[in-house]
Structures are given as C-alpha cells and as structure tokens.
Design a protein that fits this description.
Layout lengths: L3 E4 L5 H4 L1 H5 L7 H7 L8 E6 L2 E15 L2 E13 L8 H15 L4 E5 L12 E2 L2 E8 L14 E4 L2 H16 L10 H8 L14 E7 L2 E11 L2 E2 L2 E2 L2 E9 L2 H12 L6 E8 L4 H4 L9 E4 L1 E5 L2 H7 L7 E7 L8 E6 L2 E4 L6 E4 H8 L5 H6 L3 E3 L4 H8 L13
Parallel strand pairs: 4-5, 13-14, 17-20
Antiparallel strand pairs: 1-2, 2-3, 3-4, 5-16, 6-16, 7-14, 7-15, 8-9, 9-10, 10-13, 11-12, 17-18, 18-19, 20-21
C-alpha cells in the first residue's frame, strides 16, 4: 500500500469527503463541509494520502449510544470510502486499523455504522445488529384496527420552534431505545431539521408537526409532500422523514395525523423498527408492504467495557471465548453475569467471533439465532438459553436516521 493514513486538518476535511461524495455523483462543497464540521470533529476524520492527493477517508462522530439499561460512549462511523482508482490496495483496511485504534485510545467501547454494502465490514469485526423496514400504504387502507379517539392538539411549526419542541420528545424515546444516540443542538439544526434542496428528491419543503397532550409536546413528525395528479385524482404521497411519540397514545396520534393528510394517495416511511406499533395499529399489516433489510452494524472495540455498560438479566452466567483477530486485545475468555464481566480461565460455554457478539449486543438478534447461522458454537449444554436470558431486552434496537 502506497497511501499514508493520517488525521485531517480542518481545511483538509473537504478533500477527505471527496471519496465518499464520488459515489454519490458529485463533489463536496465548502458549504456542505462547514455544515458537516458542526457535528464532526476534524480530528476524527482520517485521510488516506498518496503524495498531495487524498484518495480515501473515514470519519467518526462522538456519540452517546443507547444500549439496554443505559448509554455508552460510541464512535458513529461515517463517510468511509476509497476512490475506485485505488481499490484493492489495502487502503480501506488501513483506514479501519487507524480508526479502531483511535476509538480504543479514546475509551469508546463501541463503534457502529450503517453499511452502504453489507459485505464490507464483517472482516473488521462488525456484525449486523438490527433490522429496519420501509413501508408504503394507501390512505384508503390506513384505518386503525380498533376505534381511535383523537386527543390533544396537532400544529405545524417552523424550524425555530421545532428546535425547541421536538428534541425533548426524541430524547424521551432515545433513552429507552437501543441504537439511538443523544442529539446535540447542532445535530438538530445542521442535520435533522436542515432542509437543503438536494434532500427533497422532487418533494416540497420539510414539514414539522407537533402533537401536544395536556399542553406539552408528546409526539412529532417530520415529513414532505410529493403532490401529483393522474386523470384529475391525486397520486401523490406523504414521505415520512421521522415520526415518534413519547407514549403509545402519542405514537398512535401522530401516525393518525400522517395517514389522514388530505390530497395524498399514499404514505411512505423508511427506516422503521421491525416491531413498529404501526404493524398492529392498522387493520391489515400486509397493506404496509414492509420491506426489511439490515440497519445498524456494531463493533465491540472493548468487549469487557461494552458488556459492563449494558444491563444483564437474571441470575445465570456464561463463559464466552471470543475470537478477534483485528483487535486482539479482546481475545480470551470472559465470565458474563449480572454485575460481573471478568476475565477467566474457566472452560468456555460459548465460542464466537467478535462480530457475532456485535449482533446480539443491542438485542437485535438472539444468541440462538447467531448459533443457528453458525456464528456461535455452544460448548456446554444450555449455554445458549442462559445467554439469551442474560441478554434479554424488551426493546428492539432502532436508529431513525442514517449517519
């Protein structure tokens, strides 16, 4: 490999973004880079340099990630790419090596990402950790299965008011939902509520609606209208960018609003968790036409610290033998129990690659599932059952945005 990997200076970030932007068909702009730097620290952007040219890049946001039972510092890996002129030279591997070493030095036990291509990151210890679904439902089929009584008040708000009213609702959901992360005010302003033209994909401006119950925000939706007509009748759709409620009633209320927007034939939404209440709210779940795919990928950078940071259930224990060729400091045996994650020399109950541990960490997949896929080996009778009891969580992991 001829390229050298190093940290970017602030004025170099725009060039380090060029490899990822190449695959989106355009070049990074100074304005877009300034917006990115409101949420991405320049020292967390690594560049692969060949002479004076930057041919690859990899960045990471500094997140507080929700995990079962709490939150943990995490690297939100982003904008990873190598120019096609420099593929198959080991540059991506070198970027991953430098980035994970940096994450380890920073004391972040977890790295996670959305994979543009699912086959890339497994060899660096990432495992698929959650699923998400895209839905599309005709308004004519958007009725609820049980009578619904509207409550509170919905009102459209502008960006400034949304910046005050929406984040507390998100935070209430995020604290209880593995996979979500704490959003800073800059994140809201520069990313979630920002509405540049390129995001609209032929639709209108971003709309923001808040549902207030007893005078307080309880749910919100960010959406976009795509109006069109055929033979004098509407063929347009509502594109739901993000919608959530702090309570079941508020969640139902905000989705009732979205399904009732006039002049629209359909409602579309992406990145929904696979246990979204909408599946049971509507009369016929099949009318949602949900398409499911992989979502978050998780890499445990410090296995012991990551396991100690999440809740474990019950009174059992299990000894894990972990294989991690890319981050060998994780290799060895750990006894895992509620209140205990410790090195041990005891005989292992389960043997697995660290990527499989990433799959079960947030609760998106069970130990039994990874074992059936050949990703974990049960060495002692009942070990899978004990492990599933330890890692049980009542919430399916979800992240409502691709970062």
């Amino acid at each position: 490999m001829s390229a050298q990997i190093r940290t970017c200076r602030p004025d170099e970030v725009v060039h380090a973004l060029a490899p990822i932007m190449h695959f989106f068909g355009h070049r990074p702009t100074e304005e877009g880079t300034r917006r990115m730097l409101r949420t991405l620290e320049p020292e967390r952007m690594h560049a692969a340099c060949e002479g004076d040219a930057i041919v690859g890049g990899a960045g990471a946001f500094s997140f507080e990630l929700s995990v079962p039972g709490g939150r943990v510092p995490a690297a939100g890996v982003t904008v990873v790419a190598v120019l096609p002129t420099h593929r198959r030279r080991g540059i991506l591997r070198a970027l991953m090596r430098t980035q994970l070493d940096d994450v380890h030095r920073r004391g972040e036990p977890v790295a996670y990402l959305w994979a543009s291509e699912g086959g890339i990151y497994g060899r660096f210890g990432y495992g698929p950790a959650s699923l998400c679904g895209d839905v599309e439902i005709a308004r004519a089929h958007g009725g609820f299965a049980h009578p619904f009584e509207r409550a509170g008040r919905t009102r459209l708000v502008d960006g400034d008011e949304a910046l005050e009213l929406v984040p507390p609702v998100y935070e209430a959901v995020a604290r209880e939902t593995p996979g979500m992360f704490a959003r800073s005010r800059d994140w809201w302003d520069a990313r979630v509520l920002a509405d540049p033209e390129w995001r609209r994909e032929g639709g209108g401006e971003q709309m923001r609606v808040v549902l207030e119950l007893e005078g307080r925000p309880a749910a919100y939706a960010l959406y976009r209208l795509h109006p069109s007509f055929e033979a004098g009748s509407s063929s347009g759709f509502v594109s739901v960018i993000e919608a959530m409620g702090a309570t079941p009633a508020a969640t139902a209320g905000i989705w009732r609003f979205l399904l009732d927007v006039d002049w629209m034939e359909r409602v579309k939404a992406t990145l929904l968790p696979v246990d979204h209440p909408l599946l049971l709210l509507v009369t016929e779940a099949r009318r949602l036409r949900m398409r499911v795919g992989d979502a978050l990928w998780v890499r445990l950078v410090d296995v012991r610290a990551a396991l100690a940071a999440r809740s474990l259930q019950g009174d059992g224990s299990v000894v894990l033998e972990i294989v991690d060729s890319f981050c060998p400091w994780n290799e060895g045996r750990l006894r895992v129990a509620r209140g205990e994650v410790a090195r041990t020399t005891d005989e292992p109950d389960l043997r697995l690659d660290v990527s499989a541990l990433g799959s079960v960490y947030l609760g998106g997949f069970s130990w039994a599932q990874v074992a059936r896929a050949g990703r974990a080996e049960e060495l002692a009778d009942g070990a899978l059952e004990r492990a599933d009891a330890l890692f049980r969580t009542g919430r399916t992991p979800w992240c409502p945005e691709i970062f």
